[in-house]
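Replying to the earlier thread about multi-chain prediction with a worked example.

Input:
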Amino acid sequence: MHKVVITGIGVTVKNHQDPHTLFATLESGQSLIADDHILKEMGIEGVASSRISDEEVIQLQSRYPSLDQTRVAPSGFAGFDALTKSVKDADLNPDQLRQAGLYFGTNKILPTVDLVHQLAQQKAASEKLPYQSPESVDYYNPQTVVADMVEYFEIGGPVTSCADACAAGASSLISGFRQVSRGALDIALCGAADFGTQPVMQLLFKNIGALNQAQLFNCASEVSRPFDSNRAGVVLADGAAFVVLESEASAKQRGASIYAYVCGAHRCTESYKMTSTEPSGKFYAECMQAALEKSCVSAEDIDHISAHGTSTKSNDSAESRAIEQVFGSHTPVTSTKSALGHSLAGSGAIEVVLSALSIKNQVMLPTLNFESLGDDDAKVSVVKSATPKAINYLLSNSFGFGGVNTSIVLARDSAC
Amino acid sequence: MLKPVYLFQGETLLAHSTSLESLLTHKGRLMSTPFESADLINHSIFISTLADENLKDVGAERMVRKTSERQARWLIASGVRTWRTYFNEPQNKAGLFIGLGTVDCDEEDNPELVQEPTAECLATAMLEERRPLVCLALLNSSATSHIAQLAGITGENMSFSPLLSAGLNALCEGYFAIAEGRLKHALCGGGSQKITPWSLLAYESIWANQDNYWLSEAASFFIASDEPRLNQQAAIGVMRQAYRARLKNNAHALTEQVNRITGSPLIENQHVVKVILVGANLEQQDITLHALGGELKSRAVVLDSYVGNTMAAATAIACNSALSYLQDAEQGFVIVIAFGDHGEFGMFLIEANND
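Result:
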């Protein structure tokens, strides 16, 4: 098997289009979460989110004039932006891109409030055609941007669009990793994009009782608090990230900078429930254990865990139990969703980017707002503030709605 | 070293309860009707539509039926029935790989709940009038989750969307999961997007260059395993090679890829029973058939001419068709050449199982 390294990273989240700046923001303990004004305008108070603003979307659109704004949704622009930066960061040339594969994770582009009204009015008027034009529908196809990515970068390898809910970003990376690992590709561009703050998405989450209750806290930045006893639901976010995975041999041959090694990964299904994980965390534990085995490292080797940590009661409780089962109580755990919110399909890719930087910078990022574990939580060591640490191995979790679990092991050097 | 991947035939759901076998043996024909909404894109489109599945025969609880919608139910029914043909108990290292359509926005999604064109009215409709579990039907992963639960699959899974290449990628991922030893068994397959005015418009760019296009609702699954026998039944075929690429310069690249297949040492001096083309547009068909040439061309089957464009179900239907041909032939190879939506290309070599 070939060793796999990360040679390029790109990220696009609220107010940040550079992974290093984002890392510095999180390291300083700042949150990107604020009151959700769009929902407030809909008469729904007390919801926090981490939204990429309309102004930022316009900037993204102007940066990439080759993409058709009427066909590509904002999440597509964010994904394209993250991909562009990762390709530039890795300093890939056209020949290398022509041999590369593209692995893109995405979720949903749901109808806007205006479209829903339009549908309602047309349906009420018994009009035959509920939609205006093919172009207007293309916009709601989250894979539309994949064709643009392929054409713009002239990507010649395999192309996949993965739809594994909140684990889609990590799942895409695992697919790309395996291709490079077995020598089928030298380079895989792996990433994801999702706009979790779409009003209809937030309403769906609210409807099933998973959305945050910001009114319980003094300010929006306190709302996302993974593993904390007072956590009260997920904070949805917008975001995209890409990593360039490359065989170590290829990276070294061209003198590319290496952020981290990808040692191994595991992806599995729970077969438990659509809406929640098994409370003991046994499926999460199995996933992490399998990732360790595939990486040929032991639990004791892992210096830091980037948790899925959504700030929901059930996820964090099960994840803490799983971590305790596999690692005991001392391995430091963090969830950057405390500052970034949960960008659904995008989150796994964003967290791998931040994990790679944690390894590169030898710094653990904080879990904001964490004070104490809840009664139902297992004893885990949650990182409260940014902390320098020798990180040789890091494990990153992404667990998707419906029971798609992923764990990825990253390393500082080539020992893995 | 890649392990051989044994293939076991599964269920293919086609419109009007048409059997795949009857189509391949020319004993039956899949009926289609004009799609009146096709005038949306000024095309003539014919459709074959599947009946709904109530899921009672697979023992799905009410919750599953409430959190799934029509196209998910096709997948759940055919996937679970296929799995249970071979497995009565949960299996270690079993996985699930599915290509599926999306349920992003649907004209059946009760917009009439929104009485007035205000944001507040939308919020009220969604939060107070709509049953919470209906929202879960929108998730792509719902169908995957339900199948995993009903079949007891706890290994690796992955779902892709939305069209032809989704099924192609699902098969590739499933093949490599077995061949590389990560899994022992995998349920592989896919289901088409349900045909609605919405889906027609959503994928108009794909249909736009076709005349008299035939869209067909379908779902299809098969089992891939590292064992030659399952539950007393011998595998019909062994997948010896799976290959995935992307075609840039269509004509030249496609010819190169076809030559690569026909020149494979695996099939040198071997009997090729059939060459199945699936998902190819007319230009791709012409190029492929020309490149196959002579004898192989005479054994080529353009699957879409039998079943229509079955989208994410297409590659699984092609594999099940390959197994049907091999069952009759008992030896030799079937080559499956699958095309995706944006230049994706896959090739699978399936040999009759002699183990």
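Chain A has a mean pLDDT of 91.

Feel free to reuse this layout for your own posts.
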